[in-house]
Write a structure and sequence with these properties.
Two copies of one chain form a homodimer. In chain A, helix 1 crosses helix 4, helix 1 runs parallel beside helix 6 and helix 7 runs antiparallel to helix 8. The radius of gyration of chain A is 20 Å and the shape is globular. Chain A is mostly helical and 199 residues long. Chain A is 60% helix and 5% strand. Chain A has a three-stranded antiparallel sheet. Chain A is built from eight helices and three strands. The first copy, chain A, folds into two domains: 106 residues, Arc Repressor Mutant, subunit A (Orthogonal Bundle); 66 residues. At the A-B interface, helix 6 and helix 8 of A face helix 6 and helix 8 of B. The first copy, chain A, binds a DNA duplex (30 and 30 nucleotides) through helix 2 and helix 4.
DNA sequence: AGGCAGCTAGTCAAACTTGACTACCGATCA
DNA sequence: TGATCGGTAGTCAAGTTTGACTAGCTGCCT
């Protein structure tokens, strides 16, 4: 539902100022149309919607530039906050993220969170996932007792596998971040030599 | 996109004849509003749409029954075919199934496929997943060479984990089906004693 | 010069989803 | 008796997504 918003907002943030087609092209180059299904219409819609909400500012294109309209946008302060908010929520919260779309979008902007912040959000995610795991275990054990057809177990096993994979991934990512892997926005000395690779 | 269709169609199929609220209640009792996000509007919409397409027949409610309208539906022959078609596709095809919604819906009706058919569809799925796995491996190995920011690796690892979980689940389900687990629609002697549990 | 292929930029109707809302009925309870 | 609570059945406007379509410009070929 808001994977599109995050992606659009994030791309505008990267460019500082961007018009619709620019966002569209960038996202296409990330193949985001596949893993987050962002279609042109959704992008332009999100842009307009957010402009209406005040998280984006419509900046007129520099005069004299030829071609069609080309309306450009820029993040407002509220926009920055909104971006952070979305990013945090999507990384930390599990909810029925339809197909990991939102999580994937969040990971795409991972460095924008600080290293420590990313780590604690992921820890929160891990906690939630453990809770889900416990629930699913219960379901599997006592589900058939409670009159459900047995093949529903296959469903529970599927969800178990997904939750476990997510859990392992998150735990692994936490460790990598702790080890200094990946360049994060708040890393000191962003000089050459790559700040703190595996060491 | 069509998880709703399959669920609605499947419930009507089970009842033989059902009206909207009945379908809605049944799906709610499966918590399908959570794992497949089926909301009332979608259900009634799907029902009408499919009636328009000829896969469902509008049967008038028996006269004299009180209360509001209560329009009932029944599967046509085309409806049976459509149901089979959807079920097969969603079980076998991986595609960007947004959040496993479609797969979950398919598993809910697993017994409706025969045992052998379910097995071969799952085998097809396994094949596809192996292909995806190979692709992701490539991406992970040569991705950073190709100018992508390193944190994109976290994305690939996430997808890898998901694909692997799906793969293991499918393989496990195949074995369980082979071992005779779960009552399938085409099992011989559906007598008491549970046909062919683990043996 | 003419033309046409392809990129740029975005629009739009149709489809679908959301979930709050209406309205009817039976039962319970003071 | 009549107020009101909960279950039944469905509608509807608003919001969102889809992806095919329009239309201007540029560069290149002939």
């Amino acid at each position: 539902m808001s994977a599109t918003r995050l992606l659009v907002l994030g791309v505008v943030r990267i460019y500082g100022r961007a018009h619709g087609y620019q966002v569209r092209r960038e996202l296409l180059s990330w193949s985001a149309d596949k893993w987050a299904n962002v279609q042109p219409g959704s992008i332009y819609h999100a842009l307009k919607k957010m402009a209406g909400e005040g998280v984006l500012d419509q900046v007129e294109a520099e005069a004299g530039t030829k071609g069609p309209e080309r309306v450009a946008y820029r993040l407002t302060d509220a926009g920055q906050k909104h971006f952070d908010q979305l990013l945090q929520t999507m990384l930390a919260e599990v909810r029925e993220d339809h197909g990991g779309r939102e999580l994937a979008a969040a990971v795409a902007f991972l460095p924008a969170l600080g290293r420590e912040r990313a780590i604690s959000l992921l820890q929160y995610r891990v906690t939630q996932l453990k809770g889900q795991q416990a629930n699913l275990d219960l379901m599997l054990r006592h589900g058939t007792e409670w009159g459900q057809p047995e093949h529903v177990n296959a469903l529970y096993r599927m969800w178990q596998g997904q939750v476990e994979a997510d859990l392992n991934w998150a735990a692994d990512l936490i460790e990598r971040l702790r080890a200094g892997e990946y360049a994060m926005a708040d890393d000191p000395e962003p000089a050459f030599g790559r700040p703190g690779a595996i060491e």
